[in-house]
Description:
Layout: E1 5-9, H1 10-19, E2 21-25, E3 28-31, E4 33-38, H2 48-53, E5 61-63, H3 67-80, E6 86-91, H4 95-98, H5 101-110, E7 114-120, E8 154-157, H6 164-176, E9 183-189, E10 196-200, E11 207-209, H7 218-229, E12 234-238, H8 240-244, H9 248-258, E13 262-264, E14 279-282, H10 289-295, E15 300-304, H11 310-313, E16 324-329, H12 332-335, E17 341-344, H13 347-355, H14 364-384, H15 394-404, E18 410-413, H16 418-425, E19 434-436, H17 445-458, E20 466-471, H18 472-477, H19 481-487, E21 493-498, H20 503-511, H21 535-541, E22 545-549, H22 552-564, E23 569-574, H23 600-613
Parallel strand pairs: 2-11, 4-5, 4-6, 6-7, 7-9, 8-9, 12-13, 12-15, 13-14, 15-16, 16-17, 18-19, 18-20, 20-21, 21-23, 22-23
Antiparallel strand pairs: 1-10, 2-3
Helix pairs in contact: 3-5, 3-17, 7-13, 9-13, 10-14, 15-16, 15-22
Amino acid sequence: MSAETITLTTSQAIIRWLANQYIDIDGQEMRICGGGFGIFGHGNVTCLGEALNAVRDDLPLYRGQNEQSMGFAAAGYAKQWLRQRFMFCTASAGPGTANLLTAAGLAHANRLPLLMLCGDTYVTRLPDPVLQQLENYNDPTWGLNDAFRPVSRYWDRITHPAQVIQSLPNALATLLDPADCGPVFLGLPQDVQGWTFDYPAVFFDRKLHRIRRQAPDRDEIADARALLRTAQRPMIIAGGGVQYSRAVKELTTFAEAHAIPVVETIAGRANLLSDHPLNIGPIGVTGSDSANAIADKADVVVAVGTRLQDFTTGSWTAFAGDAHFISINAARHDAGKHLSIPVVGDAKLALNALGEGLEYTAPAGWVAQARAGRVAWDDYVADNVTWGNGPNTYAHAVGVVNRLCDPRDRVVAAAGGLPGEITQNWRTLDTGTVDVEFGFSCMGYEISGAWGARIAQSEREPERDVITFCGDGSYLLMNSDIYSSVLSQKKMIVLVLDNGGFAVINRLQEGTGNDRYNNLLTDCPTIPEAFACDFAAHAASMGARSEKVANAAELEDAFQRAKASDRTYVIVMEIDPFEGFTDQGHAWWEVGTPHTSDSAAVREAHAGVEATRARQRKGI
């Protein structure tokens, strides 16, 4: 190894190293890090900012408006690239960094790569206490940045320049690991950022990385194959991990070879096209009657790339009590859930291995039953998304966009009623085109995540659009990346569906016997006189083109104008807060209810919850 060294600051070393890490994607070598999102403050501008400025053409820095939204944008970027590339976020010490906590939680829940380079207090402690420092009287080593430990897959505080030689490769290994993928936090004390070290020059050599594909254990495959051969009513649950493994083709081939019906999780939407004969629909709380019907009867369930979240399992009431699970997952923690036969490994490799020598075909009657259920569900959806003369619904908006968009346009949603409405009513036109963020179901992701997705999309398919569905509550929470998208010339189409508050939670509130309270604006006792926000005017003030439409018919024309626009376009439509929900396809969902109440309606609802609880599997 060469003894040559190069003197750099800690910040310069971090950025130079990042700029020299590459990955092979479909035969093209690209930087793993696509750049970053940054808001500068005294904790990161003088040193890290200086280092970033030197590589501004290699690692573009997008100026954010809010650190939380920067993290969401980075998550949307990583999803669009199927976790093969990531963005960093840099924030100053104190509140700037604290704003990233929610984004770190989102990335952790969704197993997404996100690198956070955040200012920290001084290692020397000579100027303590400094501006924005939180003092812990009993432990001076503990500070705000330690709050990121539970929401980071890898956490480190760089207290000496030499540490990055060890920390950066470990951080990147986490960001690229199929099982441990998640957010990485590096705390950068303000003094250490500017300290120098004589680094080995070889540390900065260009390096090509590959994402590991872990081969499954032969004995685990044998056990899974033996169980599947006994199945009379088999079913595949296709999760988001199928796409991250780039295993859509293998999933389709396996299902077709053995005639096994496939249902999709929220994260797994767009694994199969909607018209594939084995695509039986979305499963779970925001699922379809067709998928939930076969889940209730399936005797062997092959779960591929899913963590079996409660919205998928109906809080573990969606399946027959004697159903057996085979869980294919890169993460050991997920593969062993609910007494599954675990197959720990890459989905692409595992599906191929499971199919080798598997002389099995699902009974024709079972497949015919599943297909008939999907036909009935398609008929229901077709009617549900068609606007007549009644009140506007989410489904009407979904139907218009679904009919008029390009098959490769990307659809984004995150919180409120829209994730369910899109999961249930969207008919997949092409694989990998739906991003419903429901791991954290985080308000505010809709616009910011779409901006990040558009940045990634413009690197490969600039002619396509990103279309995001956003409720009025989420818009009011976080909308500033409409401005970001206009400034950066990354066009989005934003549909703001205004139902006058938090209508989906109001629905849950009333559904559990409670009175309407504090969700719809008209039901807030501290609001003397509610009024509607002019979202179109607000979006226009940030440079977007915008308009408000009265119904789905007007939405059709507006959407075509949005498609033709060269900049971000916002369309606003009011939605009925009571009649605006898809009323079929739901599995049970456990929510906490009062065990005693003065309200007879609350007591009755609680009794209903407890009666359904008897169906819950008692797995681990």
